Amino acid sequence: MHLLLACAEPFEKEPPLDTGASETDTDTDTDSDADSDTDSDTDTDADTDADTDADTDTTWSLPERPDVDAPSTADDWRWGGGDGYPDVVDPTWPVVTRVSDLAGLSAALDAAVAGDIVWVEDDAAIDLTGQELCIPAGVWLAGGRGQGAAGGLLYATEGGDAVLQTCGPDVRITGLRIRGPDPETCPDEWPDDCPNDVSGDANCAYCTDTAYAISTTWDRTEVDNNELSGWTYAAVGVHGGLDADVHHNHIHHGWREGLGYGVVVYGTDPTSALIRWNRFQAMRHVVAGQGYPDEDYEARDNLVEDQAISHVFDMHGQDEATGDGSANAGGDIRVHGNIVLVEDQHSIVVRGRPVDGAWFYENCVAPDESEAADQWYYYGNFTVDEDPDGNAAPNEYGQSAGDCGDRKSTRLNSSHSSVSRMPSSA
User: Fold this and answer.
1) Residue 226: partners with Cβ closer than 8 Å, 6 or more residues away
2) 321 φ, ψ (degrees, to nearest 5)
3) d(CA 401, CA 366)
4) Which of 175, 172, 176, 206 shows the shortest CA–CA distance to 189?
5) 252: pLDDT confidence band, cut at 50, 70 and 90?
6) How deeply is 196 buried, as exposed, middle or buried, from its count of CB atoms within 10 A (0-12, 13-18, 19+)?
7) Alpha-carbon torsion (327, 332, 333, 337), positive or negative
8) Mean pLDDT along residues 305-327
9) Closest listed residue to residue 256, CA positions, set 282, 235, 232
């Protein structure tokens, strides 16, 4: 499973002809020539310096990016991005290459270097079925979502490995529609015609090839202002690397039974992600981890709408993945400031004992207090209604959309919130 001029010879003057000129005259001429040459050289150097300064002064650089972590309640883009989202790419910037088909997209990514931006045209619909496109370090892949358009469409009609893969740190994917092959909980082949059928399967998780959109194993991957839907395994897989930042995306209809992750954190090496200001709808788990002790995530200020087929936030236990009897369930998990409108499922389940701790606080949730949070298999290091510093930070239970609708960001500090704000220079 899913589971880079030889130097010219010196010029020598011929001896001057004997014209009868005195040594004094010769010296004078020589001094005059020398002064003239020196002055000329000085003028040339000055011109060169001026040209260099002019070139330096006109070198283009990206504008400062706006802060999108403090939206007002009047900002329609605060959950999930879209119309009005301010941190957008201008396709007329000189570092942008514009593409509208698979050949152009592949060629642009192959040629891109840090600081380049590859722009998918708003009217493009590019089939990535069977593709595993590599986005180089420091490169942005962008589209026009929220700029009077839905954004260019990248899609797949069958499962397979992630269609977009980071191949270095500081990659950003923004402003696109990225659509998977199956928005249903089970495919049409279930239960009688599953090509991947495993005898005794309890659900349709692996009936057909699983699909996911974005996979990263590198530091500081940023995924923002996209619409991601129909990915049976995960919309975003953080399979290694630190400080992934997944924010202001609309992630929906990724609810395959047994899988169905919006963002999954999975790594035996140190792995961390910040998941903020996303809008989730029709998912199985909006965020999950595999359970290894170096997996950390913080999920804050997200909106989870009222459709889910299992508990909302999740951390697996290591034993579920390895069968080694370990009690571990991730490292450091912080879930706070979210609105969770799913009433008939737990808002969070931790399936073991986190190494550092899990905290669930200052959320506004639909379930009653007795049903909102649960811990399975192994117990301890899971705190509800207190922040990591031990301060009282109660959740609001039994709430409706109207009760939670005007909540603002808690904006609490996090050890996982260091993200790259600009790509590297070209």
Assistant:
1) 81, 145, 151, 173, 174, 175, 176, 177, 178, 249, 250
2) -85, -35
3) 8
4) 206
5) very high
6) middle
7) positive
8) 96
9) 232
pLDDT at 77 over 50: yes
Q: Is the pLDDT of residue 231 over 60?
A: yes
Closest by CA position to 355, among listed 377, 378, 330: 330
Average pLDDT of span 254-269:
95
**372, 347 contact by CB (below 8 A):** yes
pTM of the complete model: 0.83
Top mean-pLDDT range of 40-49, 201-210, 391-400, 411-420: 391-400
Q: Measuring CA to CA, which residue among 179, 186, 333, 361 is closest to residue 271?
A: 333
Q: Round to whole Å and give the CA distance between 309 and 168.
A: 35
Rounded CA-CA distance 367/373 in Å is 9
Contacts of 259 (CB under 8 A, 6+ apart): 205, 210, 232, 233, 234, 284
3-state SS, residue 399: coil
Give the number of other CB atoms < 10 A from CB of residue 123.
Answer: 11
- Which string of b and e fits 363-383 if b means at least 16 CB within 10 Å? bbbbbeeebbbebeebeebbb
User: pLDDT digits over 134-167, tens only?
Assistant: 999 999 999 999 999 999 999 999 999 999 999 9
Half-sphere exposure of 258 (CA within 13 A, CB side): 11
For residues 291, 295, 301, 303, the Cα torsion angle rounded to the nearest 10 degrees is -40
